[in-house]
Amino acid sequence: MTQYPDSAAANLNDGFVVAINIVAKEGEADAVADILERLIAPTMAEEGVKFFMPYRSPTDPNAFFVYELYRDAAGWDAHNGSPHFQSAIEELLPKVEVRERVPFVPYVD
User: Residues 51-100: pLDDT tens digits?
Assistant: First the structure.
């Protein structure tokens, strides 16, 4: 694995990453932003979560990106089964046109 001299960067390159692209339905972007914001605290409190950061596009207010970093795939599985995630997804899905989740592991050279 590529070594990073900065310990913060090294920590972000160690684990199981999930990249999520979300496109809100017209008129639902602020509701989607609120749902994602409410997920931050409970998700960051999960044992298997290292980092959870939602972003909103400055050029398309309906477009969101979420960077999630878990200790391992089991951490992601636990997150997907958590009550706060299940509740948020139930509220989120009717408000989005696109939700694409792609898992990644660190690049090994």
Answer: 999 999 999 999 999 999 999 999 999 999 999 999 999 999 999 999 99
Could you tell me the two tokens for 72? 């391992």
Tell the burial category of 32 from Cβ atoms under 10 Å away from its Cβ (0-12, 13-18, 19+): buried
The one-letter code for the residue type at 11 is N
Burial class (CB in 10 A: 0-12, 13-18, 19+), 14: middle
| Whole-number Å distance between alpha carbons of 25 and 37 | 18
Vertex 55: Cα angle to 97 and 106 (nearest 5): 100
| Cβ contacts of 17 within 8 Å, gap of 6 or more | 67, 68, 69, 70, 103, 104, 105, 106
* pLDDT band at residue 107 using 50, 70 and 90 as cut-offs: confident
